[in-house]
Write a structure and sequence with these properties.
Elements lengths: L21 H6 L1 H16 L8 H15 L1
Length: about 70
């Protein structure tokens, strides 16, 4: 009769830094840009004026708050 030896994996939860290293940010730069661009397109795709709404909305808010 053979005994099976199972492989044990130990997972250690080391403390991670609050801000990742610059090399890690550089490594995921393309992913960040892709996700940000996709979010931007989805947010403004169905508006009538599209991309311009990203600039018009804060300006209108600024005007309204300055009047009030």
């Amino acid at each position: 009769m053979k005994l099976r030896m199972s492989k044990t994996t130990i997972i250690d939860a080391k403390k991670r830094k609050l801000f990742p290293s610059l090399s890690e940010l550089k490594r995921y730069k393309d992913l960040f840009i892709t996700l940000a661009w996709r979010d931007f397109r989805v947010r403004y795709a169905q508006t009538t004026i599209g991309f311009l709404w990203a600039f018009i909305q804060p300006i209108v808010t600024l005007i309204i708050l300055s009047i009030v």
